[in-house]
């Protein structure tokens, strides 16, 4: 059931059982797999793949009073790969080359940059800002209003909290600066600021700010050392800041971080 | 595909791809979104909204031997708002004004009171009893037979366990008394009783009973102080017991807890 | 929509809205509930039940470049009971009598033995090997390449990690030996080897190998005692190794472990 107002580009595949609402734009080379629901005012840019049974432009709370869908547009950037049964709300903008696992939930009033990955069953609550090249593994729960800068990594089961005296109406948001790494099953408490290149150890409960390039572990998390002291178990070489030792999927993958950042700076002049 | 035995009230919306089984009652003003499966013997009270692709009256284990659905009724109270892809089993009763996030799982032999909220991806196992005005955030896992009283709050990733010597066949259930608060990512061990107005800190592992109005933190959780000593970070004022400082969505929202409870007691006379 | 190449056995039920791709074999007495997607090259053995809206033979990453499905067969053994909305990838083999909860995700290049149970919302990442009679509760996240031997139990929210210096390209896999028990909300760090009959306490963070028949608890987990010292809270009797005290669903359920293992050894001669 495709609403006649839909604008559908060239070479678009729409499989059986797809519902497409009013004022939807689907650019060229998009593939919408079986049973998706694309609600009103969704814009899907070229080359994107929408996994089976996904729901895009999901109703925000203003729908439920009168069951009339208000205008809450969702934009999905170019070349997205959204896996099955993902739910993405209206009033959200996702950049190019987005990838998701299965069954992710992305709420309203969220801005996601380019080249972001969100793992299976992860859940991003309203009003979050997520930079470019952020990688979030499975089962992460990102509390309302979190601010995650570029090149942040989050591993399975990370929780970002936001209510310092639950239940309350005044939230303190978590901020994570660029290149920081949040290891598996760690919990970041409301209002915590994790600075650039910091590393939060697995299972840590982070109750206060983490300084730049600092490793914290434990519950409550305590400073251990500079991340520069951590060695790779296989090679014995330094690992962090990781931008100098890891390049898979990164914009410096063809050379190295220093060469790439110099070229970026040169282009910016 | 709607079974002819279905009783459907006035002003009911049933979207495309919905399956409705035998002996289903749908009261007035119910909205059933795309692709839901309403199995046999489900009763949906007036004004409820059933999110897309939800499954109500799901088979309990007695179905699988002969693939014949036994009579295991599910009742959904008035004005429910059940978000997409939720699964609710037969032999369960849910009160009025229930709200769920996406992809919740609610098993059989559960009794849920009025005005309860269950967050995205939360999972309530069989034989639980959940009071009125209980608020459960996303990704909570509530073990079999847990007893959660009125006005309890549970934040993301809370786990209530039930097997003291796993694997075994003899469970010890968790009990949480009214107005208690279980903060994010905490784990409550089998048989623990958390008393009224207690506060479990984020990431705590609670191995023994928690006294009334007591804050516990850590792993294993230890008593810190009375909850009355906790101050709001913004205002410096006392926060707990929270019923005196928080009213959003509560029955005392129009006045305050004391005024409301007096009026309730007056009416009860 | 059933592709004409499908081979469908006797007494097969295929409910409304099911999609069946090319080169699919469905043996006798299989039941495929509403809205399932069975992609190409899936083989479902006799007596299996596929829960509503499940997706079998899900695309692996090689699909997305040209949107042509390569040959990545999935085999589901006899008498499976797969609950709703589960996603199982191609290039995976699952043994007989498999049971899953709802919304499980099982990725590619996985080998699962017979009589395995995987709970609701659990997620098994690629290249894992899982033995026979493994029981995994809800919300477990099993990292790439984990090796789980026979009769292992894992309780809710267990995470097996795999990257010792995240982000990296060189993983260290977790190995769990037979009869070990991993309690709720525990986290096993990369490369850890948990030996036979060990018991990991609830909420533990396991940073190094755990010796045979040893109880570890805490974060980081520390040795407490032999599992043989743990008593049942109700009876005061020894509980572990659990194969001598628990038999529900086990191959020795009709007698006891010793009698059964003797008969197995006798048959093997």
Outline the secondary-structure elements.
Three copies of one chain form a homotrimer.
Chain A lengths: L6 E2 L4 E2 L4 E2 L4 E2 L4 E2 L4 E2 L3 E3 L4 E2 L4 E4 L4 H4 L7 E3 L4 E2 L4 E3 L2 E3 L4 E2 L4 E2 L4 E2 L4 E2 L4 E2 L4 E2 L4 E2 L4 E2 L4 E2 L4 E2 L4 E2 L14 E2 L4 E2 L4 E2 L4 E2 L4 E2 L4 E2 L7 E4 L4 E5 L30 H12 L1
Largest sheet geometry of chain A: 10 strands, parallel
User: Can you identify the CATH superfamily of the largest domain in chain A?
Assistant: Hexapeptide repeat proteins
Largest interface: pair, residues per side: A-B, 37 and 42 residues
Distance between the termini of chain A: 50 Å
Strand neighbour order, sheet with most strands of chain A: 1-4-7-10-13-16-19-22-25-28
Count up the helices of chain A.
2
The number of distinct structural domains of chain A comes to 2
Using only CA atoms, what is the Rg of chain A? 20 Å
CATH classification class of the largest domain in chain A: Mainly Beta
What is the architecture of the largest domain in chain A at the second tier of CATH? 3 Solenoid
What share of residues of chain A is helical? under 10%
The average pLDDT value of chain A, as a whole number, equals: 96
Structural class of chain A: mainly beta
Low-confidence stretches of chain A: none
Description:
Chains A, B, C: This is Mannose-1-phosphate guanyltransferase C-terminal domain-containing protein. Chains A, B, C: Pfam families: GMPPB_C, Hexapep, Hexapep_2. The structure is a homotrimer of 269-residue chains. By secondary structure, chain A is mainly beta. Chain A has 2 domains: 225 residues, 3 Solenoid (UDP N-Acetylglucosamine Acyltransferase, domain 1), CATH 2.160.10; 38 residues, no CATH class. Chain A contains 2 helices and 32 strands. In chain A, the strands form 4 sheets. A 10-stranded parallel β-sheet of chain A has the order 1-4-7-10-13-16-19-22-25-28, with no helix packed on it. The N and C termini of chain A lie far apart (50 Å). Chains A and C meet through loops of A and loops of C.
């Amino acid at each position: 059931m495709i609403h006649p107002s839909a604008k559908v580009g060239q070479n678009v595949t729409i499989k059986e059982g797809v519902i497409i609402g009013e004022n939807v734009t689907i650019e060229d080379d998009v593939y919408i797999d079986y049973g998706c629901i694309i609600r009103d005012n969704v814009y899907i840019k070229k080359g994107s793949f929408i996994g089976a049974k996904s729901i895009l432009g999901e109703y925000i709370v203003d729908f439920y009073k009168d069951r009339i869908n208000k205008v809450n547009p969702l934009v999905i950037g170019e070349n997205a790969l959204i896996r099955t049964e993902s739910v993405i709300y209206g009033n959200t903008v996702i950049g190019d080359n987005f990838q998701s696992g299965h069954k992710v939930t992305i709420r309203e009033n969220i801005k996601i940059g380019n080249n972001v990955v969100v793992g299976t069953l992860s859940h991003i609550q309203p009003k979050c800002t997520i930079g470019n090249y952020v990688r979030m593994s499975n089962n992460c729960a990102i509390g309302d209003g979190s601010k995650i800068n570029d090149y942040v990594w989050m591993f399975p089961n990370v929780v970002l909290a936001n209510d310092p005296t639950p239940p309350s109406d005044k939230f303190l948001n978590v901020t994570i600066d660029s290149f920081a790494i949040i290891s598996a099953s760690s919990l970041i408490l409301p209002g915590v600021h994790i600075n650039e290149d910091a590393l939060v150890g697995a299972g840590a409960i982070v109750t206060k700010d983490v300084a730049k390039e600092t490793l914290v572990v434990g519950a409550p998390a305590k400073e251990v050392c500079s991340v520069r002291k951590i060695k790779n178990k296989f090679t014995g070489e330094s690992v962090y800041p990781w931008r100098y030792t890891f390049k898979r999927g990164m914009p410096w993958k063809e050379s190295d971080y220093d060469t790439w950042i110099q070229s970026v700076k040169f282009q910016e002049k």
